[in-house]
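Posted in: Structural Biology > Protein-Ligand Complexes

Title: Requesting predicted complex, coenzyme A in pocket

I'd be grateful if someone could produce the 3D structure tokens for the following input. Sequence and ligand are given below.
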Amino acid sequence: MDLTFVAASPQRFDRFWALEQACHPLPWSESNLYSCLMGNYWGELLLVDGKAAGFYLFQQVLDEATLVNICIHPQQQGKGLGQRLLQHALEQAKARDLAICFLEVRAGNAPAIALYQRCGFNQDAIRKGYYPAIKGDGREDAVLMSKSL
Ligand SMILES: CC(C)(COP(=O)(O)OP(=O)(O)OC[C@H]1O[C@@H](n2cnc3c(N)ncnc32)[C@H](O)[C@@H]1OP(=O)(O)O)[C@@H](O)C(=O)NCCC(=O)NCCS
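-- Reply #1 --
Done. Output follows.
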């Protein structure tokens, strides 16, 4: 399996957008995703044998990174690619001399929470009812996590 990483940019929007729609039950809007491919956002697209398989995006403010999105195409999940992608992302953040990485995740997103814990993130707090529920009118808590780099 050949893994390649290419920098996020508005020119590569189409591949990010296809993954965003395939991976998330409630995908971002096109304009939200587009705006996260520039400015103080950065990240990379993961290619597996040349095919787009996932991506990550950080927002950077001074020496703090926030992981705003990470996803692996459903057909490629459960093979350890999420872990490879996140480890690579954290190495890139370290190489930029960033001190800490933050993230927020749905309390019910067990695969993502398992991945973050395995990569050394600790839980800092819970934000009650932060997200609209994926199904129905309810709300879902956010788990706030961080990792020192
Ligand atoms: C989160 C995500 C990136 C993980 O990618 P992945 O390539 O499947 O991750 P890995 O194969 O490296 O590891 C998945 C881990 O989740 C665990 N897992 C999978 N399904 C699970 C479930 N229903 N409950 C608990 N753990 C689960 C796996 O066992 C594995 O952990 P392990 O190695 O300790 O066994 C992927 O599921 C995804 O893209 N989800 C949709 C987008 C998303 O929710 N992103 C995060 C919030 S922005």
